[in-house]
Each structure stands twice: as C-alpha cells, then as structure tokens.
C-alpha cells in the first residue's frame, strides 16, 4: 500500500515549518520497497514536481518546497519492474491540479478501457503511463471539465469535493460491474493550491489534523524567549495548517476520515465532511 501526505497552510512562507511539526507523527515510507517517491508544491502560478531518490532516508525536510507554497502533496509507492519513474511517479499534475491515489487497485486491467472511454480524447492523450492512478486523475479532470471549472481559481471547496466524490463513485460502480464484491482501498487526494480535498473508500485509513498557531518553532529557531516584537513571532502565532496523512505513528491528535466520506478544506482552512450519499 502506498503512502500519501498533503498539507494546505495559511502562510506559504511557513509551510516548511508546519511539515517539521509533524516529526515523529507520520510515516512517509511504510513500504521500504517503495521506489517511486514524488512531491508537488507551488511557486506562485507554477506547479512544481520533484522526484525523490529512493535509495536514501527520507525526512519531512525533504518534502519542504524550495519556494513559498500554500500546499504540498507527497506520495510514496512501489512501481513494478519495467515502469518508468519519470512517467508514473505520483503525484500527477495537470494545469494547477495535483492528484494522488493510494493504491494500486487489484485486477484493474479490465476496467481500463471502460473508464478511459469516459475521458475526452485530449485528456486521454495526457495519460502517459499504464497506472490506474493516472486514469483516475483523468476521470477527475473530466468531471471538472464538464462543469467548466478546471482552471477556475474561485472554485468552491464544496464543489471540488463533490467532483472528487463523484470520481470515486464512478470507479466504485465500475468495480461492481466488473464483479468485484468488495471495494478495495480507494483513497484519493487532490489540491489546486487553494483547496485540499480527500476521499476515503475501503479499509485503508486516512487521517487529518489541524495545526494551530504557536509562538515556538524549532525549524526557525523561534522560542518562548524570542521578543514579541520579532516579526516571526506574530507570523508563527497566526499560522494554521490542515494536514492529510495515510500513515500516522499514533492516532492521538488525528481524526480518522470515516469510510465513504470526503474531506473538504478551503483557503479559510475550515474543514467540512461530505457524506457518501
């Protein structure tokens, strides 16, 4: 099973600090054989993707964006032999969207053609690899396109969440039609830098937490003794971040997303749950 970590923060200057606060709380690489590690972030209007070396220890500092960024999305998975990491490492990117799927889905091959048939040709051409995850992303983009909201910077968080939920439902219906009586893990996470959405289906857990402001920051060297007049004190006190993680070291302080539920977080960092029905 692959791993996902995502964060949306109120202060793009302090996202690296917020990731540092997760030390000893999350597991980035639960499968030591994971050979496809990728992280996406934002630099103003640009979406940045980085592949991380699988042959070295991974830390939260490695996930920190090189520039100011409101959001980050990380995925660690294992690619079968013969698949190119360049084309198949998540998260996937399209326009301003980053997308990751915690998988893979078993016995996916019979579903490939039926699901791709629902994707317009120009989006089909963007599917570069054979993974199920990239096709799920194409379905998500298809639903956004049908609403005319793919590039809308004012896309409401609730609408984005419903689109992700509809994508999950579409895949689930295809699984049932193919004869799968038990839904495999189908956890999806996406962000456009302004909203963060995640949906959970199946037994694999998905957690979230909200980090509130604090005057102390080990990453920046801000302590309780730092003068109140120091500009970083007020900035760290105001910061807020919502984090989504598939693997945590302990559940205290984290909320497990109920099965079938979609998590919706907007720029105001208010958390909403969309039910399955």
Structure notes:
It is a single chain. With 277 residues, the protein is of the alpha+beta class. It has eight helices and 13 strands. It has helices spanning 15-20, 60-63, 85-88, 109-116, 121-124, 132-147, 157-177, 231-238, and strands at residues 3-9, 36-43, 46-52, 71-77, 92-94, 97-102, 187-191, 196-199, 207-211, 241-245, 255-256, 262-265, 271-274. The strands form two sheets. It has a seven-stranded antiparallel β-sheet. Strands 5-6-7-8-12-13 form a six-stranded antiparallel β-sheet, with helices on one face. Helix 4 (109-116) runs parallel beside helix 6 and helix 6 (132-147) crosses helix 7. It is globular and about 65 Å long. The relative contact order is 0.18.
How would you describe this structure in keywords?
277 residues, alpha+beta, 7-stranded antiparallel sheet, 6-stranded antiparallel sheet, globular
């Amino acid at each position: 099973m692959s791993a996902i970590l995502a964060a949306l923060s109120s202060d793009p200057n302090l996202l690296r600090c917020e990731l540092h606060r997760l030390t000893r709380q999350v597991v980035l690489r639960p499968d030591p054989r994971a050979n496809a590690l990728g992280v996406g972030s934002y630099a103003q209007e640009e979406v940045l993707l980085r592949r991380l070396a699988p042959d070295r220890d991974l830390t939260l500092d490695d996930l920190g964006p090189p520039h100011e960024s409101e959001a980050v999305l990380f995925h660690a998975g294992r690619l079968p032999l013969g698949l190119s990491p360049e084309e198949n490492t998540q998260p996937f990117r399209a326009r301003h969207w980053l997308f990751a799927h915690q998988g893979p889905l078993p016995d996916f091959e019979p579903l490939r053609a039926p699901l791709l048939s629902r994707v317009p040709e120009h989006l089909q051409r963007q599917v570069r690899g054979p993974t199920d995850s990239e096709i799920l992303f194409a379905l998500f983009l298809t639903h956004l396109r049908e609403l005319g909201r793919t590039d809308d910077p004012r896309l409401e968080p609730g609408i984005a969440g419903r689109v992700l939920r509809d994508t999950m439902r579409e895949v689930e219906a295809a699984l049932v039609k193919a004869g799968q009586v038990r839904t495999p893990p189908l956890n999806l996470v996406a962000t456009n830098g302004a909203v963060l959405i995640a949906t959970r289906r199946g037994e694999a857990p998905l957690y979230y937490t909200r980090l509130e402001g604090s005057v102390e920051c080990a990453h920046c060297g801000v302590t309780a003794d730092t003068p109140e007049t120091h500009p970083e004190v007020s900035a760290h006190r105001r910061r807020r971040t919502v984090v989504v993680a598939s693997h945590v070291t302990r559940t205290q302080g984290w909320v497990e997303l109920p099965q079938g539920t979609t998590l919706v977080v907007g720029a105001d960092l208010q958390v909403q749950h969309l039910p399955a029905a």
